[in-house]
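One such given next:

>
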Amino acid sequence: MKKNALALSVILLFVLGVTACASKTPEPVTFRIEMTEYAFNPNRIEVKVGQRVTLELVNMGQLAHEIMFGREVVMKESRPSGYHQDMFAMAGIQPEVQMMVMEDMQAEHEEEGHEGFMVVLNQNGDRATITFTVTKEMVGEWEMGCFEQDGVHYNAGMKGVFVVSP
């Protein structure tokens, strides 16, 4: 009888120990990204796989700004114009986007030849949120960039780093 109780106690302690060591889902996070001439603030964001992420975008500048996430800059006519690898397409997810803008000029930007997921804020005070859950396919370092005015914003330094850790 004592042996059974002892064995049961050992098993229970083992199960409790394994459960305590099991990885937990990271807490959701929200980052406010201010877009100005010509920067993202902050220009570095770090997240973890499994984390629910909300990016609050605010155009604090006077010009239109966009944000894209990817790797390997696409060059068109010797100007940066987006990424060969779109972070969200590589992960197979479509983030939720809520726009709070004065007017929608998305079609104009599509005509400029930008490819991949992007959010465009045309005027000072325009806002948007991007919400998604980080997947294992996103692990690594990505760039966030603005390619407005035929890449002028990007060349002027409007880029940052988006880091996903396991």
Notes: The chain has a mean pLDDT of 87. The chain is about 20% helix and 45% strand. Residues 43 and 160 are 4 Å apart (CA to CA).
